[in-house]
Each structure stands twice: as structure tokens, then as C-alpha cells.
Amino acid sequence: MALWIAMSAVAFGQLADWTADKGIRLDALLEKVVESKGPEGAARVDLVPAVVSAGGEQFVLTLRFTNASGTVVDGVRITSTIPTSLRYLAGSATGPGGLVLFSVDGGHTFGAEQELAVRAANSESGDADPSAYTHVRWLLAAPLEVGATGFVRLRALAR
Fold it and tell me: Are 135 and 80 in contact (CB under 8 A)?
């Protein structure tokens, strides 16, 4: 059985739990990346709850999923809107074995980064810049066992 999980109303700073109708639970968390110096001057990166943002700050969006359906689920697709206040950081989408796809048209169509194009004002088509991405989709390669949990993640910069 295939499953679609969508976060269509992700708002910056107001991420909520989402439950898919097939028993896959999805929790979203947006955190700000804070870099500092640790002991002995070593670089340190912390993730802190995101509340307020300034242009150029980096954020991590994590979507944790759990199969609470009572059956094995195959063909799981997790789709996330990229909040309009953020722009996707190229190459940052990660998750358990599978495929990561992107949309530049509001989630109507998806493709790999090298397949995406946008039409410029002068009607010429060109490669899509990651700042034009509106959605990210993860296609999990393996079936999701009963009770299994995992996460997918991406990084973004405040506009």
C-alpha cells in the first residue's frame, strides 16, 4: 500500500504534529543553527528552537515519522512545503535510503535537482536555483515496519 504524507501548511515558527490517514504519524520541528566556540576554541554548532529570524540565519527542518498503523507500509512519500520565509540550502535534504525530489511549481510536479528548470521572464528556460524550490519530497526505498521511526531533514536560510 502506498502512502502520501503532506505538510501543506507549514508556517515559520508554527510547526505542528501531522497524522496521515494510514497511521503514519509525522512530527515537524524547525530549529535555528547557532555556531559558537566550544572549549579550547573548537567550533561548535547547536540547534535551538526557532522563534525569530533575521535574513541569512540558517535553520534545520526535521520531520520525524512513525508507523503507528499496525501494518507494514510500502511506498511511503513524505512531502514538505518549504516555508516562504526560508530558502532551501542546496544539497542539504537527507533521510533514510531513498530518493529526494523537489518542486518549483507549488508541489504540482517533482524532479531531481538536475531535472528542474524554471521559465525566466524572457521565456527562456533555465536550471532552477534552489531558492526557487517550493517543496521537498522524500521517497522511502524500504517498507516501513510496524512501530518503525525515522526522520528526514533539510537546511534552509532565512530570506
Answer: yes
CA distance linking residue 90 with residue 45, whole number of Å: 19
| 104-131 pLDDT tens trace | 998 899 998 888 876 544 445 567 888 8
Residue 156 carries which side chain, given as an amino acid letter? A
Name residue 2's beta-bridge partners: none
- What phi and psi values does residue 41 have, to the nearest 5 degrees? 80, 5
Q: Which three cell numbers stand for residue 116?
A: 528542474
Catalogue the long-range contacts made by 53-58 (C-beta closer than 8 Å, 24 or more residues apart).
53/12, 53/85, 53/158, 54/158, 55/158, 55/159, 56/157, 56/158, 57/32, 57/33, 57/157, 57/158, 58/32, 58/33, 58/89, 58/155, 58/156, 58/157, 58/158
Statement: the pTM of the whole predicted model exceeds 0.70: yes
Instruction: Tell which residue, 71, 70, 52, 49, has the closest CA to residue 60.
Output: 49
pLDDT tens readout for residues 52-104: 567 788 889 888 999 998 999 988 888 888 888 889 999 999 988 889 999 99
Domain boundaries, the chain: 3-158
CATH 1.10.246 fits 3-158, yes or no: no
CB 65 within 8 A of CB 22: no
